[in-house]
Amino acid sequence: MEQQYTHIKLELEERLQKLEERLKETDHFGFDNSLALSTGELSQYDNHPADSGTELYEREKDLALKENLEREIEDIQYSLRKFENGTYGICEVTGQPISQERLEAYPTARTTVEHSKGELSVRRPVEEEVLGNFDKFNFDGDEENENMSFDAEDSWQAVARFNENSMIFEDSSLDETGELIGYVEEIEAFVSTDIEGYRGDDSVDFQRNIHYDQYLNDK
Fold it and tell me: Are 36 and 42 in contact (CB under 8 A)?
């Protein structure tokens, strides 16, 4: 069995050598030295916060690269030890042979695919529900105006999805007591003109909405 994995063992040894050389060339990504020595600054006291933030970001990035490289080295060393004790290619969970195809693609595999802990989750991040172009929140449902831009109504509807109480858009301009808000005069909520303003009775638009109903009830 060991002979069929000879080329895999050679690949692992070559990969291990390259990784160890890279770790040495980068001086362990500078983590053997203090931050002051790596930046050449005797003190961070007089540095602008943005400068310190940049250095911190670079430090964190180097840390992630170093940990990833060291983890790969540990996995390869572990696999090479399995060659020495004759257990390479054997699933650590079931004791069954790992398929040749899996080992060719993933030489440091310790289990069969069925018992791998690294399976990708089908769950998506909740953030994806609110990320993306504003067009995805166009709630008008009008096929003729499918290119209509994201407007104030869509903005309210996007937020109202998370409201436990069912509401309609016009209610957004009412407070908890039912009082009209956002208008200087009550009639402004249901009477309006175009951009050219008042030019006579024919230029006035009239909407029979919730504000109109409340206006009549108050009279």
Answer: yes
